Amino acid sequence: MSYHLNNFLRSQISNNDPSYLYLLHLIKSKKGKKLTKSVFTELGDIEKLKRRAIKYVNRYRKYVDPETEIVRDGTSAVLTELKSIQVKNFRGFSSLNENDEGTLIPFTKGVNVFFAPNGGGKTSLCEVIEYSLTRDVKEASRRNTSLKNYIKNGGPHKIQCKLASDGDVPVSSYWNSCFIDRNRLQEFSLLGSKDTNVKQSDVLAILFELEEIDEIINGMVKPTSFKASEFIRTLGESNQITAVDNLIRKKELRRNEILHIRNTELKIAEVLGLTQFDSVNVESRKSYYTKLKAHLVTSTQQFESSSEELQFHKLKNYIDSIYRLNNTLEEKRNKLSVDASKVNYQKLYNAIKNLDDISALEICPACETPIDNVHKHPRDVVRDELPKLDHLHRLTSACNTIQEQIQLRVDTSASYVQTCLNEHKDSLSVQLKTILEEISDCDKRSVSEYVVSLSKIVPYLKEVEILNNSLKEKNNRVSSQASRLISLNSKIELIEEKLRLCTVHETEITASKRVLTGLNSEIVNILSDIHAYKAQISKDYIFNEFANNLEASYKKIYNELNSYKQEVEAENISGIELSTLSYYNQINKHDAPSDLVSEIKFKQANGTYRIILKMQDDKEDDAFCVLSEGHLRALGLALLLSVAKKNCHPIIIFDDVVNAIDTEHRSNIIDMFSEDSYLKDTQRIITTHDRMFWEKISNKNKKATDADTFSSHVLKSTNRGIVIQNFGVSYSQKIKDAFEVYDIRQALVYSRIWFETMVNEYCVNNEIQVTTRFTSRQLKKDNWLEISLEATYAKVAESLGENVTTFNFLKNDLINWGAQNQEHHAFDEYNYNFSHSTTSVEVQSIYEKLWVLEAQFKPTETVEKLNREKSELEKTKRRLVQILSNENFVEKARHEVVQARRDNLSKVDSGLDLLNKILEQV
């Protein structure tokens, strides 16, 4: 989270309105997304949202004080210069194994320049510092990648950042403005371009660390377009209205069903002869009618039923007709057989088969005799035989008709015989019954056999007549009792109708009760729904109240965000006009006078700012109308430097910034880094892939005593991570390092180089004139002529006048002066043992005299540097003494840790003693 977004939330969390807290929670948790869209998407369970928002806000309140903010005054800044960073498994930095602690990157308090080609690790270095100071890497969000995935490289990352003050690193997004990268300058130069779609407000927000707030504002619709009516919930109320209407309709149906049941029950009572419906009486009356019906049915069963008389008196005629038809059938069949034999079927077949056009025949189709020689023409054969076939057809039809008549009589008589057996079996004699059974069982396909069996009844016609007489008497008795039977049957039918109607009505009542049960269940469900809808209406009321409050809160937070942004912009802009002008003109100091700017102003219009430049001819115009793209990038750099200066940042990290500035102005930037009152006292960490810029800035700061103010490194990316090579040129520090390991020879070499460097600088700064004679010894590579050192030293001694004591000590008494090769600063091999036999105390005296000579050449600058180093050592000593005086630390800390503190204190004491000795001689 950015400093300003964090600061804005701090100032707003004292508000207890749930809707406002909800919007604050969305701003914090949904940053990078459109706020209005998040509201529309997420607004659901209002109670859950309230609880969640209040929970997170209360948790946030525990860690922040709404009344405080990070102090922007540089005098109270908690960040000091970086001392070193050790990093492993982060972006381009890797590690060899688990025991590898990572790459150690030391920093000086002044200029720290890192040279590397593209892909060499410059941005990785800057991102390590950014993560150490802010716990964030902006490039990860720009690339829409999670921070965890963006920074990982193999195993878990490990970063150990140390400050020059040895204090803890104050992690805060406030330090984002310490970082200046070429992307910001590029965006600034392309302000308003349709190709990049970069708006001016966006760029100012980036310059002043307001990009997150600006993104949030851009993700919000205008308050006039954010209406609570879009969120108002009426579904509960509309559902309740629908449910009430449905309840009324169901109750009406229930009343109708109840009324229908009552009317049907009255019908049952009316059918059963009751004045009113009573289930007990109804069941009793139904039982009575059921028993009455059974009694009446029993009574009717006692009456005789009429029987059909036997109609055998015409049996003889019936048998005669069958005989006659059967005889006729035999005659017809015989006739058919005789006539059929008279037809010559072979001739007829052949004639008809070959019959085509008979008139054109030349050969008989039957016998293949010439047609003129045949006995009978085929045409005549056909004419004679066809009528015979027609006669046969008529005979066949007559036979079939007679056969059908015989079969009808057989079937009818057989059916009648079977009926007699079924109805009068008990009344017949055994003989007659046997005959009838024989007739029933005989083969009816043989008419002759059947007629014989049927004729056996004739002797028993007398018995049949007697039986018929008894049947007539019985039928007469039945006729005399018919009225009584009809009366009983009508009563039975009446009772059955009553019972049927009762059953029908009871079925209707059962169906209605089923419907009524369903209606009751539906009514119960509707009542339950209405109860739930009432609860929903209550929730909707709370939600709608929240939505109405949300509309007001949305307007408030929109205005608060804009106000905060404008206040911060106004605050930042108001104090940087002069510094921006100064930096801009320093960067462009070699431009034509007409291109220089005399005044820079910020003009607000429509909630954003325009940068107005006043040129040397007093003409004012918009910066983005009059400046080239290169000058716009220079203006962007000037703005960012002004912001850093206003915030009093002790560190500024330049990530390949010079690549955004044209070559002609890069020398001016180097001068500005060294000469500006703010920048020269600020730790500058610079990365570049411009070799010329790297060499120029290295040469600019290449002095013997710059170990604490300048370092130069080369970055190289390998398959095992980024490798750093130190190209530092501080001779005083190299002498100290040689003392640390008792390397006397190395200390002497760098003492000689330091001495020569100071002499050369003195000659240049004081414009010493040398008259010399060049020989072949002075002719060097690439046609360079080199002045003799002895001639140079003589002129320096002459210019110093009487103050040559220190100079002569170093020149004449410098240990091994004659044994060293002046060109290569190498020891004579014969003096190898001699140099190592020399004590470090003697070499230390040389080191002290070198500082004295440095102070003689540059008194003010050298004394300030020595006093500053002494002050820092004293501060470190006080801190170490305080730590070691803590008995709890000495007793509980590991022995090696305590010993390291003591060794460090001893080293600091030695350094102070040496500085005091030097200062006494200065």
TrEMBL record:
Residue ranges the record marks as coiled coil: none
Keyword terms: ATP-binding, Nucleotide-binding, Plasmid
Positions of the RecF/RecN/SMC N-terminal domain: 82-699
GO biological process: DNA synthesis involved in DNA repair; double-strand break repair
A Pfam family hit: SMC_N
Gene3D superfamilies noted in UniProt: P-loop containing nucleotide triphosphate hydrolases, Valyl-tRNA synthetase, C-terminal domain
Molecular-function GO terms, alphabetical: ATP binding
UniProt protein name: AAA family ATPase
Annotated organism of origin: Vibrio sp. HB236076
